[in-house]
Amino acid sequence: MWVATRRVTKTATVSLEANQYSVDPALVSRRVELRYDPADLSLIEVFFAGRPAGVATPFVIGRHTHRRVPQAARPPAPSTGVDYLGLVATAHDAETVGSISFAQAPPFNLDDEGRS
Question: What is the DSSP pairing of strand 40-48 with strand 19-22?
């Protein structure tokens, strides 16, 4: 169990690792000790003056584990066997890359003053 000390807000909440928890309203404006498992931030035990004061109920959960807990590496996504980006790049190159033919260019005529 890890321990953190927090002050209870006027709305009877405490924050821990970007999460908000509601606690007993009798603890408003008091410093409490939060004991928790860093791998599971859904269960927080609250202690006041060394005595148990209930549990902190998750109010807003944004993070489910402590950021210092090593996370398991995600397995790589399975390959579909089709390289969509490669197909698009090949089609693009086929249309845009190639030799330049000036025979296909529109005629370019200049008048006497150099205007087209």
Answer: unpaired
